[in-house]
């Protein structure tokens, strides 16, 4: 397995592999001279249905004789690519995980606002499912990471 994704030209058998580039959207690597030269050399535009992209974990399935080019993708680009390739149920769960990731970054701010608004700590725990110690540490003004450190494990 490689750490790079691959752009490749699909023939009849490879048409089901990877994702059409158009479905994934703009990728930063498409603006690089190497990718532009590769596309020009093969007479392919980024809008071509034959141009596919495969994530690193799937590149072993690309046929040996396929025209292919390794390309680096950002984490966000890889997420989009994997989302396009995921079956419906998996895609929905991945959407939920992405939403969770996006809101989890604001967790401490939200917990602090709830405490400042006067929501009782036990109710915050009930509503959020957060650990009572985490809520208590935010209410007390300490970071949850500090509260769950070695000193907290001795309690």
From TrEMBL:
<protein>
    <submittedName>
        <fullName>Uncharacterized protein</fullName>
    </submittedName>
</protein>
<feature type="region of interest" description="Disordered">
    <location>
        <begin position="134"/>
        <end position="155"/>
    </location>
</feature>
<dbReference type="InterPro" id="IPR046045">
    <property type="entry name" value="DUF6003"/>
</dbReference>
<dbReference type="Pfam" id="PF19466">
    <property type="entry name" value="DUF6003"/>
</dbReference>
């Amino acid at each position: 397995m490689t750490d790079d994704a691959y752009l490749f030209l699909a023939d009849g058998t490879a048409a089901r592999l990877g994702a059409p580039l158009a479905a994934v959207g703009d990728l930063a690597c498409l603006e690089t001279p190497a990718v532009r030269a590769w596309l020009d050399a093969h007479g392919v535009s980024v809008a071509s249905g034959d141009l596919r992209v495969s994530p690193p974990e799937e590149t072993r399935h690309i046929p040996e004789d396929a025209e292919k080019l390794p390309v680096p993708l950002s984490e966000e680009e890889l997420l989009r690519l994997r989302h396009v390739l995921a079956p419906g149920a998996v895609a929905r769960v991945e959407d939920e995980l992405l939403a969770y990731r996006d809101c989890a970054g604001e967790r401490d701010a939200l917990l602090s606002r709830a405490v400042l608004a006067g929501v009782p700590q036990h109710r915050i725990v009930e509503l959020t499912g957060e650990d009572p110690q985490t809520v208590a540490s935010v209410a007390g003004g300490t970071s949850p990471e500090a509260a769950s450190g070695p000193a907290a494990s001795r309690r």
